[in-house]
Specification:
Two copies of one chain form a homodimer. By secondary structure, chain A is mostly helical. Chain A has one domain: Up-down Bundle (Monooxygenase), CATH 1.20.1280. Chain A has four helices and no strands. In chain A, helix 1 runs parallel beside helix 4. Chain A starts with 5 loop residues before the first helix and ends with a helix. The interface between A and B is large, with 44 and 44 residues.
Chain lengths: 89, 89
């Protein structure tokens, strides 16, 4: 695949920061309240597999912003899954 | 941008189904418990703006799977934001 122009990649990078950062308050909330009750495990498991596939897709289409975003988001989703399984409620 | 080959788009479509569908149990859980307490509003607002930017990015790079995924996900994120604001807790 051809290289994605930098001006388009910038949109991707801003999107990457927002969708990645959006997981931080969720992780913080679970840590603070010591409760993952309101969070659906099913959601995060499906989401995690989906994000891994977006990462593979990003590699194939040479999208640096998708690769970085989905690598970070998959790690954050894993943290939430870990808490959910650990707290068990 | 050149057209993304169908075999790569298939990975994107599977990813799209998973990350879109992953929101359904969250919406169902909020509806069933009548509580959006465990869900972070900050997260979904940041996430919503991020998803809109991924939609714009998908349009620029001619990625049909990204366009469809982010259009659906943004609508589902809007439903969660609506519940969160309506239930207010």
């Amino acid at each position: 695949m051809e290289k994605i122009p930098m001006e388009i990649e910038i949109i991707g990078f801003i999107a990457a920061v927002l969708t990645s950062v959006s997981f931080v308050p969720q992780v913080y909330k679970i840590w603070k309240t010591k409760s993952a009750k309101g969070v659906s495990l099913t959601m995060f498991l499906l989401f995690f597999v989906g994000v891994i596939l977006w990462l593979v897709y990003g590699i194939f289409i040479n999208s640096l912003s998708m690769i970085i975003a989905n690598a970070i988001t998959s790690c954050l989703a894993l943290v939430i899954i870990y808490y959910k399984l650990k707290i068990k409620e």
